[in-house]
Amino acid sequence: MSDVSKALRRYIRDIPNYPIEGVIFRDLTPLFRDAAAFRTAVEELAGRFRDQRPDAVAGIEARGFIVGSPVALLLGAGFVPIRKQGKLPWRKVSTTYQLEYGSETIEMHEDAVAPGQRVLIIDDLLATGGTARAAAKLVEGAGGVVIGAGFLVELAYLNGRKRLEGYRVESVIRIDRARPPTLDHEYFLHLGSGYPQ
How far from chain centre, in Å, is Cα 177? Predict the structure, then answer.
């Protein structure tokens, strides 16, 4: 882990047994609250993709909006919101994907991505990779080219990168194991959504 990653890791608050017993919730709000830490994290993430020159950054609801918008500004790219079903006001495209318990649908305006546009997928946290993979499917279905997926935090022990094989994946902070190791159901913790990603 780099010095930057170690420094930023201190801003992630681990909350045991939330939202259900046996889950560690990774709370990024202390990082967002601290101006210097937030700036460092966003600049670090944007820097990983500067050479890719994206036309647009697609942020996944909801914390992907918090991270993706400043990344888009730093990269000189537009911003595309990918939202949960029923939240977008205009004509949209959608995809449904399976979760551990049930399914989830995400949507994007049908004109949000033009054919051939280079799009970077951004979210706050990579757990099992399902939401990010579904977002990539949406972008590609609209004719966009996914140049990578970036996250502030990666729960590496949940193997989310496996679902994103074939894409460039970057994370600023990598957490290699659950603490304590017996708590391995962190895919519920997507920072408030209650769904794996």
Answer: 19
Does domain 3-188 fall under CATH 3.40.50.2300? My reply is no
Before 19, cis peptide (omega within 30)? yes
* Active-site position among 26, 44, 63, 133: 63
Catalytic residue (one of 39, 50, 100, 140):
100
Q: What is the mean pLDDT of each run of 10 residues along the chain (197 residues)?
A: 90 90 90 97 98 98 97 98 97 90 91 98 96 98 98 95 97 82 37 36
DSSP-based three-state secondary structure for 82: strand
User: Phi, psi (5° rounding) for residue 120?
Assistant: -105, 125
pLDDT at 179: 59
Has 100 been annotated as catalytic?
A: yes
Q: 35-49 and 63-75 helices cross at what angle (nearest 10)?
A: 60
Structural domain boundaries in the chain: 3-188
- Active-site residue flag, 63: yes
pLDDT at residue 109 in the model: 98
